[in-house]
Amino acid sequence: MVTDRSFNLYADALDVVGISDPTIGDPKPAIYAATIRKRWGLGPRATMDSWFFPLKFGTSLPSIPLWLDDTVNWIVDLEASHEETRRTLRIA
């Protein structure tokens, strides 16, 4: 996606639930990878875990957890996925 708009959906989502993440910084990066997991504790309230990775041009992409449920995750290697996509589409 190409856009000239600058926003951070991860930070906006945290604002909606009244949480902040000090790793976001200011200004908020427009290019990032993030994942969120909701867990139910012993009480009536849910707990939220999050992982935030600011991205920079010219650096490798991170591996991030994709949560399938409260306890099962799949580690997504974004760099390997990006390279495989480039190879498959024959993009130099």
Features:
single chain, 92 residues, alpha+beta, two-stranded antiparallel sheet, 30% strand, flat
Structure, explained:
This protein is α+β, with helices and mostly antiparallel strands and 92 residues long. The protein has one domain (9-88). 21% of the residues lie in helices and 30% in strands. The protein has helices spanning 9-16, 78-88, and strands at residues 32-40, 46-54, 63-67, 73-77. It has a two-stranded antiparallel ribbon. Strand 1 and strand 2 (46-54) form a beta hairpin. It is flat. The model has no long low-confidence stretch (mean pLDDT 86).
Topology summary:
Layout: H1 9-16, E1 32-40, E2 46-54, E3 63-67, E4 73-77, H2 78-88
Antiparallel strand pairs: 1-2, 3-4
Summarize the structure.
The protein has helices at residues 9-16, 78-88, and strands spanning 32-40, 46-54, 63-67, 73-77. The chain is α+β, with helices and mostly antiparallel strands. The strands form two sheets. A two-stranded antiparallel ribbon has the order 1-2. It has a two-stranded antiparallel ribbon with strand order 3-4.
